[in-house]
Write a structure and sequence with these properties.
It is built from 12 helices and 10 strands. It has 314 residues and is an alpha/beta fold. Helix 6 packs parallel to helix 11.
């Protein structure tokens, strides 16, 4: 009887120790305050580990996953979800310290500055859920696709301007941001290069006069805004080359503002929209047209030659 009680106490101790250490992989409960990293978890097929996500994450099935406001969330809201891990994309020191004090693991993964940071964050998220092998395959595929895009691009050296926001101040990207690094790779001259931000995060606020003075040849808009703020409705912008020539391109806000597994899609979209990359279908179409031209011209030359021969014989 004593032996059974002894083993019972031992098993109870092991259970408590396991719980204190966070348990096994199946007990991982993640509150993700970042759309980007929620998307990474979905891509890793670890959606069942999510107990809450921010308002903008697209989920295949959200039956058991709560929605929370990543910017207004309180400590009590997070604690009620009983997470083992909390992922943040933007600093919240007060919340972070309180969570750590309660033995909850906090992972701060700020906006990526380049593709290498994107890859490392995908791996970092995969470690939390034990899906490193799957993450390795995703990263390898992304690198392969990026390599193909870079090989096919035609750098033009044109002046480009990317707008993140307008209503509450004009915000753009410099070379310290992911999108800024894309423009460098694609061979554009980002007119915001050299303009720093207060937080040194790659997203500086710029004056309208600066954009007008630097006269971009291409403008890319990565935000949803009211009609009165559309480029064509800004009187002082009408003299800008991109506006006069209609070289204004709009990119989906979620795609433009997130990083992670969608980064290659973002790079490809920017490259195609701005003309740095010609889609393979169009290339094939152009190639087919030229082939038709060659065949037609060859046939015409043969016909003319035959007529000449017949004429000479007669």
């Amino acid at each position: 009887m004593m032996s059974k009680w002894k083993y019972a106490r031992l098993f109870f101790f092991i259970f408590l120790l396991s719980a204190a250490c966070g348990g096994n992989d199946h007990e991982i409960r993640i509150v993700s305050l970042s759309t980007t990293h929620s998307e990474i978890l979905v891509e890793l097929e670890a959606e069942e580990r999510l107990v809450a996500v921010d308002m903008y994450t697209e989920l295949k099935s959200s039956e058991n996953i709560q929605r929370i406001d990543a910017f207004l969330v309180s400590l009590d809201e997070v604690l009620q979800l009983r997470p083992t891990h909390v992922i943040m994309a933007f600093p919240n020191d007060k919340l972070r310290k309180e969570l750590i004090r309660r033995n909850i693991q906090v992972h701060l993964l700020p906006p990526a500055r380049n593709l290498e940071t994107v890859y490392s964050q995908i791996i970092a998220v995969s470690v939390i859920v034990g899906e490193e092998e799957k993450a390795g395959k995703i990263v390898s595929q992304m690198k392969e696709e990026v390599g193909i895009i870079i090989k096919e691009i035609k750098p033009s050296g044109k002046r480009i301007y990317h707008e993140l926001g307008y209503s509450y101040g004009i915000y753009s990207v410099n070379d310290n941001s992911l999108v800024g690094s894309f423009y460098k790779v694609l061979g554009y001259r980002n007119i915001i290069t050299g303009i720093g931000s207060k937080n040194k995060d790659g997203y500086p606020q710029v004056l309208e006069e600066v954009v007008i003075q630097k006269d971009p040849e291409i403008i890319v808009i990565g935000h949803r805004d009211t009609l009165r703020n559309e480029i064509g409705n800004r009187p002082s912008w009408k003299g800008i080359t991109a506006v006069r020539e209609g070289k204004i391109f709009y990119i989906d806000e979620n795609l433009a503002n997130n990083w992670g597994v969608s980064s290659v899609e973002l790079l490809r979209t920017i490259a195609i929209e701005t003309g740095a990359l010609v889609p393979s279908q169009e290339k094939n179409k152009d190639s087919n047209i030229w082939q038709i031209y060659i065949v037609v011209i060859s046939c015409l030359m043969l016909i003319m030659r035959r007529k000449v021969i017949i004429k000479e014989k007669t």
